[in-house]
Amino acid sequence: MKHSVLIIGGGIAGPALAIFLNKVGIAAAIFEAYPRVDDIGGGFQIAPNGMRVLEQIGLAEEVIENGIESNEFSFENQQGKLLGRVPNGPARIYGIPAVVAARSVVHRALVREAERLGISILYRKRLRHLTNNDAGVIAEFEDGSAFEGSLLIGADGVHSRTRDLIFPTGAQPFYTGLFTIGGFASHPSLTAADVEMRRMHMVFGREGFFGYGHFDKSKPDTVIWLSHLKRDWNPQSLDYKFWSNEELRNDLLARHREWQEPVGTILRSATELLRGPVHDLPTLPQWSKGRVLLIGDAAHAISPHAGQGASLALEDAMLLGKLLRDSQGGHEQVFAQFVQQRRSRVERVIAEARRRGDGKQTLTPTAAWIRDRVVSVLACVSGARMNNWMYSYKIAWES
Ligand SMILES: Cc1cc2nc3c(=O)[nH]c(=O)nc-3n(C[C@H](O)[C@H](O)[C@H](O)COP(=O)(O)OP(=O)(O)OC[C@H]3O[C@@H](n4cnc5c(N)ncnc54)[C@H](O)[C@@H]3O)c2cc1C
Q1: Using CA positions, which residue lies closest to atom 30 of ligand 1?
Q2: Is 133 inside any structural domain?
Q3: 17 and 163 in contact (C-beta within 8 Å)?
Q4: Any ligand 1 atom below 6 A from CB of 33
Q5: 13 CA to middle of ligand 1, Å?
């Protein structure tokens, strides 16, 4: 056997990598901190570049079937002025659509496929410590168990324990100043055209952002929504985390009070209010040390403003599987090739997400006016090509 790989994290990158490794005959086991959950809540977009990876592992149709093909972005300001509309995707250009779906649709598909292939997924295994030397790796978990392997891949997300263990004095994620709250709402807030066009509304305010749209073919009256507002947030006090849904709803209604409908309607009918600070991660000088490599958010967490974090995590998984399959040298060579092929792409996407996030911070009236003009001009001039460089990325699986 070529390697036995310990994968820390059963989110997006972890199960996807295990599936690619299984395809190429490399044994892997996934260690996930939390118990097995079928509905991890919230929703997101998988862009065509991420959908291509899902297609390679045979899950694209299932995800399309259980989400919606996202056909259009409608950019508006909080007064309801349309700034521009651009096609998202579309499948006729990229060969595969951008899909908006509940996060659980993608996560469940990956986990079930890993289970179908007989890949071992161990739950309630929170990484505590690791040994990383020439002989191999040993991962130790908070429950006292320990497992040995030849490589360890840290796919444990933005607050990666693996990263902290291999780079104890390295960069830490930082709070961007924007706090995200979102979920689903069951209310007929969408027009017939919204449903027909599978349109995502991206509403920019003087203070923050509100996105909403259709996400499930079987539920035309249900919307996915997301509010980004600036908040002072102290990680030590964790205050917003403990606010009740009603406290948070009232706060959101007050802060989005002057926004166009259906923002208020959606907030009043929202069934869940998932919340969290938006983090970003400074560039890490290295993604690997010895026999340990970071992938996905652990290596390059990205703020959510370009809708690309999960797609980048999927790309990482596919490329690493391919490089391990084709490797003639040792893991050092594979890790070096991985970083060399991934770094410039992910850094460009991260920079784009930061740029888009800047337009959601609190702005003066003049700055908001300029931002609206820029969005209008970009939508008009770039149109569907706006995301071309991100969406058209392909990894050739065949050698
Ligand atoms: C509000 C919001 C909206 C977003 N919208 C989009 C979008 O539209 N499109 C998009 O592509 N991306 C989006 N993203 C980003 C996307 O969710 C992430 O980039 C993606 O989930 C990264 O995948 P991952 O597998 O690297 O990490 P994760 O999905 O975070 O998975 C990490 C896993 O590791 C586990 N773990 C953590 N610590 C340990 C430990 N010590 N031991 C064992 N296991 C551990 C966690 O429980 C988790 O299951 C959004 C993010 C946010 C916050």
Answers
A1: 157
A2: yes
A3: no
A4: yes
A5: 8
Domain count, the chain: 1
- Residue 318 included in any domain: yes
Answering whether pTM is above 0.85, one says: yes
User: pLDDT for 150-209, tens place per residue?
Assistant: 999 999 999 999 999 999 999 999 998 888 999 999 877 788 888 888 899 999 998 899
> Is residue 37 situated within a structural domain?
yes
Give, rounded to a whole angstrom, the gap between the first and last alpha carbons of the chain: 21
Residue 97 in contact with ligand 1 by CB distance below 6 A: no
Q: Which domain holds residue 36?
A: 4-173+281-391
- 359 Cα–ligand 1 center, Å: 23
The torsion angle over the Cα atoms of residues 180, 186, 192 and 193, rounded to 10 degrees, is 10
CATH of the domain at 137: 3.50.50.60
Residue 58 placed within a domain: yes
Mean pLDDT throughout 212-227?
88
| 3-class DSSP assignment, residue 332 | helix
Nearest to 306 by CA among 272, 354, 262: 354
Ligand 1 centroid to Cα of residue 374, in Å, is: 31
